[in-house]
Amino acid sequence: MSETPVIGVLALQGDVREHLVALAAADAVARPVRRPEELAEVDGLVIPGGESTTISKLAELFGLMEPLRERIRAGLPVYGSCAGLIMLADKILDPRSGQETFGGIDMIVRRNAFGRQNESFEAAVSVQGVEGGPVEGVFIRAPWVESVGATAEVLAEHEGHIVAVRQGSVLATSFHPELTGDHRVHTLFVDMVRAQRAALAR
Description:
The chain has helices spanning 16-25, 36-39, 52-61, 65-73, 83-87, 184-201, and strands at residues 6-10, 29-33, 44-47, 78-81, 89-92, 105-110, 121-125, 135-139, 144-148, 153-158, 161-167, 170-173. It is α/β, with parallel strands linked by helices.
């Protein structure tokens, strides 16, 4: 087994290229995933920012919705940023008509909670498990987490709102670390993938 984990980026819509670059910088082999057979070949998956309703519809169209749900249930490490956080929620407070999620984290999220595109902002966010001081969070039409269940762990808050959550091998942030050149959140996720691979290899 290769030491370097292979991590896919769901390449249906959103800022795919930036995640591929960040994962490569965090010592992973990064590749786009658009089809079930590509999903079957990765050790972990990133769900990028973008438009969660579009990602939901395209996942259905490309036949990825159920295979991805099954792999998440089976323990696939997954990281979602912004729209990716929404897609990993078990429940959306204000879903668009017909919007589905992959699930994976026992949390309720609110879409566009921090405001519209022109209300985007950056803020320093201290993330539990990320060493070296706060990360610069880029919030673009960002969701926040209204509440989490007992099995989900809150990793960061901003102005009293939950903006980073982990449950087992699933990680999610409201903000976009892939847009800053700071790869520490991706390094945290790559470490999670390594740990899961090591556990499965025992």
